[in-house]
From TrEMBL, chains A, B:
SUPFAM superfamilies (alphabetical): Thioesterase/thiol ester dehydrase-isomerase
Protein name listed in UniProt: MaoC family dehydratase
Family annotation (InterPro entries): HotDog_dom_sf (IPR029069), MaoC-like_dom (IPR002539), MCH/BMMD (IPR052342)
Ranges for domain MaoC-like: 11-115
Domain of life where this protein originates: Bacteria
Pfam family, one: MaoC_dehydratas
Length: 152, 152
């Protein structure tokens, strides 16, 4: 069990996640169609060739989803109740098929839950970087985390 | 072309999107594995049966992605440069396999881009509702929108 309980997370802690993932054009097609997104910027290479990017732009929510997914092993795996939300989700640079995404997470804040004494609220900042070390996504995720069970 | 140019969007406008989508357990598996998310809450029905939800919780980023996807036909289809980001993404209620997701969008604000005279920044609030009319996701999306071409 790789996730961390509320007590194990410290503000300022930075976790560099081991697994990276190369994004393929087909990820973009699969993600966009699965989420019913008809945007030609993602699906239509001819259309995209006439935009400022010159080729299909990877769906930004795929980048967000992948960055969160790659962080879970080290953060919330089996130690969360669920995601309460996200704040300040930014995409400073585009992602294209062939780019490789690396991720890191910083613990921004934590506090006890008022209504749930066995749980606490942790804000993670996730950052996704491409193969040139440029930040392509930054967000803050608000997670309702479990405290360590008494018998552990 | 169903998307709206910057000039066609008015603050306060509410768009109720026609296409709805029933979410299946397999969407959750496919989305979570595609984004490399190993969270047992999403993938492991035995684990999930012992949580407060009693069954797998649909990945909240699938709900976000689907709500945005279902809105694109009426908002940004072919009329956006790209997503700048998201703010205040909330998941007030859980989504489970079998739930049907309906969406609506409100135009929250718009302003001209300072650096790009042919473009403007529009903030959309997307809301996803389940079959009981309960809000399961609310977010604000910041989109860089094209102005109407001079020949249209």
């Amino acid at each position: 069990m790789g996730g961390k309980y509320f007590e194990e997370l410290e503000v300022g802690q930075i976790l560099k996640h081991q697994t990276a993932r190369t994004v393929h054009d087909y990820d973009n097609i699969l993600f966009s169609t699965l989420t019913m997104n008809p945007q030609p910027l993602h699906l239509d290479a001819e259309y995209a060739s006439k935009t400022e990017f010159g080729r299909p732009l990877v769906n930004s929510l795929f980048t967000l989803g992948l960055a969160v997914g790659l962080s879970v092993q080290d953060t919330t795996l089996g130690t969360t109740v669920g995601n309460l939300g996200f704040q300040n989700v930014e995409f400073p640079r585009p992602v294209f098929g062939g780019d490789t995404i690396y991720t890191e997470t910083e613990v921004i804040s934590k506090r006890e839950s008022k209504s749930r004494p066995m749980q606490g609220i942790v804000v993670f900042e996730h950052r996704a970087l491409n193969q040139r070390g440029e930040i392509v996504m930054r967000c803050q995720r608000v997670a309702l985390m479990l405290k360590r069970p008494i018998d552990k």
